[in-house]
Amino acid sequence: MTNNEFIELVKTKVAMLHNFQSIEKIKTDDVLVVWYAKNYKGHKALLEIPNEGDVRYFEVSYDEDEGCLYLDVYSMCDKLRHKINE
Q1: Do residues 60 and 47 lie in contact, with contact meaning Cβ atoms separated by under 8 Å?
Q2: Among 34, 31, 25, which Cα is nearest to 8's?
Q3: What's the pLDDT tens digit per position in 8-62?
């Protein structure tokens, strides 16, 4: 699987999951890739839906040996601010 094929696949999977769970429907183009890496066994990406009401992050991994896609969903429960004095 190429990098672009993986990114399009995971954006589609995240949009499908969101649309299944939410009244507000989105398109694949609404899903943003925050971070992506290719490793020796597959691909990994962090994605988000830039929606004020949706504070979830999606971590998607593809294991080439097993041919499996793993999708983990994380929800932000706290947002802490730490001021650093310079």
Answers
A1: yes
A2: 31
A3: 999 999 999 999 988 889 999 999 999 999 998 899 999 999 876 777 899 999 9
